[in-house]
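Final report, Chapter 2: Outcomes

The project's central promise was a pipeline that accepts a single protein chain and returns its three-dimensional structure in a standardized token representation, suitable for archiving and comparison. That pipeline is now operational. To close this chapter, we reproduce one record exactly as it appears in the project archive, with the input sequence first and the structure output second.
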Amino acid sequence: MYVAKQPLESRIGFRDDRLERAAGHLVDALHRFTTSTLSRLAQNRAEQVMFSRFLRNEHVHLDQLIYAATRAGRARVQRAGHVHLLVCSDTTEVNVKKTQGYHQGDGLGVTGNNSDPGFFIHAGLALEAEHGRPLGCVSLQLWTRGGAVDRTGPESQKWFTVTREVQG
């Protein structure tokens, strides 16, 4: 279960302690389970409501969550002090066409087929080179695309961004 006092590296930096506690509970649940569905992450209905309210709170911003996640991963990399790291990165397409009726389409672009609504995630995971033990997420980029795709434009920079962010 979540402990009230979080290590400094895992604190997100909300001014409200209730938001900080909810973030801690959510991060703890994400580490414990291999799902991102709130109803499966929560131990009970009250926790599910807390997660949902936290994620919908106007003071919770995606960039804060990304910064906290990657900062914690980079701190683990620094503490481990390895000379060599293996950083795996790949892009995931999140297609939300089947759930269109359940959410507002604000901020969504098109997916790889240039018609379905969705977005893309490009994550970089640092591993110990010798044993392959995961050290954490060191880079995380999210973006949407319009109808026309420019393969030579900023989207291709995702690979270089991961390298820059790992090097620090």
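Archive annotation: The chain has a mean pLDDT of 80.
This record, like all others produced under the grant, will remain available to the consortium after the project formally closes.
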